Here is the input.
Amino acid sequence: VQLQAYGGGLVTAGDSLRLSCAASGSIVTINYIGWYRQAPGKQREFLAGITTGGTTSYADSVKGRFTISRDNSKNTVYLQMNSLKPEDTAVYYCNRGTPDWGQGTLVTVSS
Here is the structure.
């Protein structure tokens, strides 16, 4: 099962945006799916993760602003991002622990 992130775009600081991670097949058996991002000149960083049972985890940098959720019926994992800041500008990826990161989706937050 391959994952592809989409839904990025250009927004203004303070705006909200919801990213989607669409799977090529069922995600019911995928134990863990995470969201990550990579800003220009920086290393890729973990943002949020969700297990099959719905247990979530977050990086301190986004806790309280970002929410991860999954809809097994749609084979999709979401990342709701609120109160966006210019420093959230990055390419966002979803991954289930495989080497395939896909193209990601670009989020640009203007000040």
In short: Residues 88 and 109 are 7 Å apart (CA to CA).
